[in-house]
Structure formats: C-alpha cells, structure tokens
Amino acid sequence: MALRARALYDFRSENPGEISLREHEVLSLCSEQDIEGWLEGVNSRGDRGLFPASYVQVIRAAEPPPPARYANLPAGGFEPLPPPAAFKPAAQQPPPAAAPEPFPLPPAAAAAGYPFPPAPYGGSYQPSQGSDDDWDDDWDDSSTVADEPGALGSSYPDYEAAGGAASGRYRLSTRSELSLGSRGGGGGGHPAGHPHPPGGGGGGGAKSSATVSRNLNRFSTFVKSGGEAFVLGEASGFVKDGDKLCVVLGPRGPEWQENPYPFQCSIEDPTKQTKFKGMKSYIAYKLVPSHTGQQVHRRYKHFDWLYGRLAEKFPVISVPHLPEKQATGRFEEDFISKRRKGLAWWMDHMCSHPVLAQCDAFQHFLTCPSTDEKAWKQGKRKAEKDEMVGANFFLTISVPAGPGASLDLQEVESQVDGFKAFTKKMDESALQLNHTANEFARKQVTGFKKEYQKVGHSFKCLSQAFELDQQAFSAGLNQAIAFTAEAYDAIGDLFADQPRQDLDPVMDLLALYQGHLANFPDIIHVQKGALTKVKESKRHVEEGKMELQKAEGIQERCNIISFATLAEINHFHKIRVRDFKSQMQHFLQQQILFFQKVTQKLEEALHKYDSV
C-alpha cells in the first residue's frame, strides 16, 4: 500500500526542488523517512519534490484494537462486563479523565518563510522557529549518539554508595522542612541529608495543621518558574560545586560574585552558506571568544536554542533578547549588518554577566568546534537534561550567611517597588527616544538630503546661466558657484549616511534594553510571590496555626530569592551606566565629526571665491 500523508498547513515553495501544499491536500510519499526535516512526495497536481515534514500528517493503516481495558487484572477479580449493547446511553459513565496532552508546538515554518509570532515569555521558553532557522542536521536528535557520563540527567551511584559524600556534589532538599518542621532549607550552598518524600516522614507538632496556600493561578510566573515550589520547601536535587551561584554583599548591596576569568567574544564575517545542493541558504556568523582564541561558526537558530535554554534555566536573571526575525529580505546586506550588530550587543551582555558567562550551555555554544557534530549533540543534550531548573535552580544560589546577612523584607519590598517604577519610566522614555530617533533618521535620509541637493541644484542652474556671459573676468565666479552646488550635493549625502554612524547604534542599544525591561516584570513577580508566602506564614504563626520553625524556613528561602533579585537589579544598573555612557560618548563624537565634515565642505566652497 502506497504511503500517503495529509497536509496540515499551506506551504509555498520558494526554491527549486520544493513543491507547494494546500491544507487538507492528500499526498503520496516516496518514503516515510524524513531527510533532515524534509519529506519527498507527489502532491495532488502531480508535482514531485520536497516539503517540510512538520507540515503533513502521515496517514497510517488501521491499527489492531488495543487489549481489553482490564485484561491485566487477576482472574476472578471482577465480573465480566456485559456487551456494549446492554448499556443504555443515559447510564454510561464518563471515562476517567486522561492526562492533558502537551501543548502542540507550531510547525517549523523555516522552509516556507512564514515566521510564527513568538509566544510571550512566562517562565518556560519554547524557542521560536523562524523562516531562516529550520531544524536540520546538527540539531537532529534521532542520532544514536550515547549520552556522555556525568550528564545532568544521569544518576549518581557514587554518591549513593558513599552516603552523600561524593566529591564536589551535594544533595540539597527543602522538603524535609515540611515533614519534620525542624530542619533548615537548602539553597545556601550547604550539604543536607537525604530528603523525605513529600508528605512523609516524621510529624510536626499540633500547631502544624495550617499550611501556606498555593496560588490559584497555576500559570503565573511564580508557579511556572518553580519559585512557589522552592519557597514551600518542595525542591530537592544534587548541586555540584560548578553549579553554585554565589551572591555577595558589595558596596551597593547584594551582587553576583564576579567571574574570575572574564572574557569577550567578537561576532564577525557573516557569510551566506547553502545545503541540499544549494536548495537551502542560511547565514553563518564567525565567533571568536577571547579566552580560547578558537573561532566557531553559528547560525541564528543556534543563538535561538541557547536563548531558550537560558531563559528556562534562570528565572531571576534577565537573559538579553535576540534581534528580531525577519520573513523577507533575510539575505539583504543591510539586514545582515543590522542583525550582526544586534548579536554583538547580545554577546557583550552575555559575556558581561557573571552568571550567564559561566553557564555550561553558553560555554558549549562558544567552544564546541563547528565541525564536531557528535560533541555538539552531546553538549546540547546535556544542557536539555539539566536538572537544576525550575524549583531546583534556587538550590544552586548561595547567599551570605551569619549575623546581619539576612535581608529586611520590608526594605527589599521598598527597593523592588522603586525599581519597578524605574523600569516603567525607563521603558516609556526608551520608546519615546526610539520613536524620535527613528523619525529624525528618516528625515535625514530622505528630507534633509533632498532639501540640500535641491539647494545645490539651484546653485548649479545659476552657474549655468552665468556661463552664457562670455566675459573672461566672470569665469572664476561661475566655477566658484558650481563648486558651491557640488558642496551642497555632498552635504546632502553626508546627512543621508549619518544615521548609520550615530542614531542607529543608539536605537540598537535601546532595542536591547527594551528586551531587558520586558524581562523584569516576571523577575519581580517571582520575588513578590515569595514575599506573599512569607506574610501568609507569619499570619499563621500569629494565629497559632503554624510552628515558628516552618515559617522561618519559608522566610529563609524567600531571602534567597530576594538576594538573587537584588543582585540582578544591581547588575542591570551597573551595565546600564556603562552602556549608556559609552553610547552617548560615541553619539556626540560622531555628531562632532559630522558637522566638522559639513564645515569643511562649506569652507572649501568659500575659498573658491578668494581668487575671483
């Protein structure tokens, strides 16, 4: 029987060898095995070629019925069910609720050139798949490459055998506090014993009847990020020394501990490359990290994958947004240049962040050789199996200990509220400046250039009229006026080119910071959610419904989230001052050079009249 498939979406072919599809169209498949995300087949019009595998659903022959629902129960345990006809429709009971199916991802629109709008970030991130970023060979997880030893998803038999004393690896848990009501929560970077199962273990006193309620909105960032589970003492996992994220007290308050080995990474030489014998094209960027000196090549989809992993792993860190995708004109020089500049800003912020710069996934992205597909897949799978995400992520945060290290939650709330107001005002100002700069740049490119060249043309017409006079003594004047006309033409060109030098870099920086400002509402929401749980636990203690030790555990874990939030806020301000100082200096320097060039043109024209 010939293999067939039904088209789920419309697809328009754009390259030789591809065929177009119409939704609900039935196709004949040459093979069910996809070739790096593509299938070959014949559409209803008789055209044969390639189309995205994710755009169709294979039509399979009817499968044999599943075994009886209760066939695995002991014999004689139940009376045999009567045939279906014996049941009346009104007496039928609804079947048990099935587990909800995972939300379907949008089809890979890479080949079609139709990007899907990105879903708003809400804790867990699903990488968008744009028109120029289809999943192909170096991302195909159907490979049989074995997971390397020590992957984050693997077990730790050495630890279990040694009773939890494996070198550099600690079992941290906050669950025991719920069951015993007397043990401190994890997250401070100190080893703890094996956790009790949720709800099991020893019992608390009579006061332990009350518990802190869970959020009704299970889709809130506080819940999806794992913040709620951590604060309520449900996090448990192994933390390696290399996974610890240290917060220290600096002159401005809590700060991320600096990267002991800072580095930078340049992004250069975007080049157009092809695959499928030229049927598919993409742009590759050369990355040169300063700490290795070894260049690697990455596509935009690689950046997109990395961003997705980091946004999911670090709920209280502002991962910079990538430059936006574009459906058409992806290979135009202006677009490639603009994207490279945006990626350069993104890379600068990644390398400047003490936590993100040292993340294993980011280091794998920077250092894995472009030609070593096996090593790339192993590192990619290791990052995707990372267990230190969600509630477990907060276990990796180590905060200052000792007397006076605990934060005043009222003061924290005041600081966070002040920062929230700051980000709102900065976002409004950034939007206004971006609009003003964009409008001014448009006027320079079109209006100013046109007006100056119109003036130049008028001077040229005057010069041509004067040339009708054949007197020798007027020749010098005619030439000087003609030179003035040329000077105004050149000034018009200078105006048109100037936004590339000064205004465009400012708008690129504003775009990057608008991404950061969009991240902070979710970060603040996590901290606010933790603070709400602390207030609720204190109320239970005052009412005699909860042991003080349990409430103190909740407050300690909220303290960890507060330390991390304030550290991220301080880092944001530190980088903001650095970036805007540098960018404003660059802007003014370019403005001065521009007007010096204009002045020079006018002075040259002026000197032409000295010899008249």
Automatic annotation (TrEMBL):
Family: Belongs to the sorting nexin family.
Chain ranges of the PX domain: 263-373
GO biological process: cleavage furrow formation; endocytosis; endosomal transport; mitotic cell cycle; plasma membrane tubulation; protein transport
Keyword Ribosomal protein: no
CDD domains in the cross-refs: BAR_SNX18, PX_SNX18, SH3_SNX18
Region (Disordered): 81-160, 177-210
Gene Ontology MF term list: phosphatidylinositol binding
Encoding gene (name): Snx18
SMART domains in the record: PX (SM00312), SH3 (SM00326)
Domain SH3: 1-61
Membrane topology recorded in Swiss-Prot or TrEMBL: Peripheral membrane protein
Compositional bias of kind Pro residues: 81-107
PROSITE patterns assigned to the protein according to its UniProt record, in alphabetical order: PX (PS50195), SH3 (PS50002)
Gene3D superfamilies in the record: Arfaptin homology (AH) domain/BAR domain, Phox-like domain, SH3 Domains
Keyword ATP-binding in annotation: no
Keywords: Cell cycle, Cell division, Cytoplasmic vesicle, Endocytosis, Membrane, Mitosis, Protein transport, SH3 domain, Transport
Compartment list: Cytoplasmic vesicle membrane
Biased composition (Gly residues): 182-191
Biased composition (Acidic residues): 131-141
Protein's name in the database: SNX18 protein
InterPro entries attached to this UniProt entry: AH/BAR_dom_sf (IPR027267), PX_dom (IPR001683), PX_dom_sf (IPR036871), SH3-like_dom_sf (IPR036028), SH3_domain (IPR001452), SNX18_PX (IPR035703), SNX18_SH3 (IPR035557), Snx9_fam (IPR014536)
Residues that hold a 1,2-diacyl-sn-glycero-3-phospho-(1D-myo-inositol-4,5-bisphosphate) according to the record: R299, K301, R339
GO cellular component: cytoplasmic vesicle membrane; plasma membrane
The species this protein was found in: Haliaeetus albicilla
Pfam families: BAR_3_WASP_bdg (PF10456), PX (PF00787), SH3_9 (PF14604)
